[in-house]
Amino acid sequence: MFHNLVDMDVAFAWGSCNIIWNWFAEVLHNCHKLQNLTLCKNFKCVDEIGKEHWKDPQIDSECLSTQLRTFTLKNYIGLSCEAQFAKYIMQKSKVLQNMTIQSTLNIDPEHPMLETFSLCPRGSATCKLHFDLQPDM
Questions:
Q1: N or C: more exposed end of the chain, with fewer CB within 10 A?
Q2: What dihedral angle (degrees, nearest 10) is formed by the CA atoms of 39, 93, 5, 43?
Q3: Residue 18 has pLDDT above 70, yes or no
């Protein structure tokens, strides 16, 4: 239990998307005061492409319903497990003010990912969705 944790920056250097996203959902249950969360995935889950692994937790985290204000997902590459986790955060966070998805993918303004996230229901009426797209050169 992390009783006083309000800011968390986590970088994952290896692992299976399935294990990481499900594990991290469990971690959120132990961070009741978490307000600012940044996740950075520094690997590609080649074995996960096209697979549906994310399952919403049975019990929502207290920090999502009452505390989380900013969420940043770095190095987004478009895997379904990444999208499902980000949507879960966006839908369950009742006081979320800013959600940022950073990607180095070469995405044009008509890319379906942008529309998918833009149309996703939000738990907070004040949540602003930002895309930080910086394609690799």
A1: C
A2: -10
A3: no
Neighbours of 101 (CB within 10 A): 22
Give the containing element (helix H, strand E) for 80.
helix 80-92
The number of C-alpha atoms within 13 Å of 62 and in the hemisphere containing its C-beta is 10
What is the tens place of the pLDDT at every residue in 72-125? 999 888 777 788 889 989 999 999 999 999 988 777 767 777 888 889 999 999
The phi, psi pair for 135, rounded to 5°, reads -60, 145
**d(C-alpha 127, C-alpha 70), whole Å:** 9
Residue of 34, 101, 104 whose CA lies nearest to 63: 34
Q: Which residues contact 137 (CB under 8 A, 6 or more apart)?
A: none
Cα distance between residue 106 and residue 133, in whole Å: 8
What sign results for the dihedral spanned by CA atoms 111, 112, 113, 117?
positive
Token pair in block for residue 120: 């996703």
